[in-house]
Amino acid sequence: MKTRQLSIYRGPCAILTDLNLNIPQGQWTSIIGPNGAGKSSLLQAIAGLLRHTGSLSLDGIELSTLTRKALAKKLAWLDQQGGSSPEEFGDSLSVYDTVMLGRLPHQGWLHLPSEADHISVEKALQQTDAWHLRYRPLQQLSGGERQRVLLARLLAVDSDILLMDEPLANLDPPHQADFLKWQGNLLAQGKTLVTVLHEIHFALRADHLIMLDKGRLHFQGSSQDPRTHQALIELFDGRIRLEKLGNDWVAIPS
Ligand SMILES: Nc1ncnc2c1ncn2[C@@H]1O[C@H](COP(=O)(O)OP(=O)(O)OP(=O)(O)O)[C@@H](O)[C@H]1O
Question: Cβ(215) to ligand 1 under 6 A?
């Protein structure tokens, strides 16, 4: 995916300006930056939810020229904190039916879910360790349980590109480790992953980093490149240091 001179608007105001980004296909890209930098807005614009000027293309095709259904099949999006308020799902929508909503782009108008839809929903709920919750109303779940269900809904879409805004929110360490495992499986299947993460040590597990600051691109590059590490330290005003622990980088506030 590529952007050229991309500017993103909320109402009349540009939240992000002049972004020239390369999001490598079949890799994991993490977007990081301080609060208010525009990370969520960038994901929302890619998902077709915010007005933009400039180019936002996939394989040379402008995303804005795709129909909503075609875009929904190509891209799945997890909003920040599971996004939508619990009320949006109604009082009684079950976990199973919530995840089935992820299959809508594959279903015809008023068609009942197919065998393939049911298989995808079960697989997704198993992957996020939420299958045992399937009969529960979404509204009654804890924050972490709810996040695992919304991650399952994202997986059920079976899209080529997965956009995730703070996917680790509310997850305990074992479920964070599970997340990394199934991310690895998705990458092995050739999927493109784009995450917004505040946890820098997780962001550094990605292949590619995009750093935003005050609505502009600060730096983009490989997560293993020393220039990326230097840019990351500058992004946070020198208030972090990076240290290697085994194969992983950790960021220590300083
Ligand atoms: N609905 C909205 N209407 C108007 N301005 C908004 C709206 N949502 C966000 N903004 C503004 O757009 C800018 C970018 O916000 P965005 O949520 O994209 O930042 P972010 O980098 O994801 O921040 P955080 O790390 O705090 O989640 C901020 O200045 C924010 O105040």
Answer: no
Judge whether residue 191 has pLDDT over 70.
yes
Give the domains, in start order, of the chain with CATH numbers: 2-253 (3.40.50.300)
Closest Cα to atom 2 of ligand 1: 10
End-to-end distance of the chain based on CA atoms, in angstroms? 35
pLDDT tens per residue, range 44-65: 999 999 999 999 999 889 998 9
Query: In testing the pocket of ligand 1, which one of 40, 43, 78, 196 has its CB within 8 Å of the most ligand atoms?
Result: 40
CA of 151 to the centre of ligand 1 (A): 22
Helix, strand, coil content of the chain in percent (nearest 5):
40, 30, 30
Sign of the Cα pseudo-torsion (217, 218, 221, 223, in order): negative
Taking residues 10-27, report their average pLDDT: 95
Atom number of ligand 1 nearest to Cα 38: 18
H helices present in 113-199, as ranges:
115-127, 143-156, 173-188
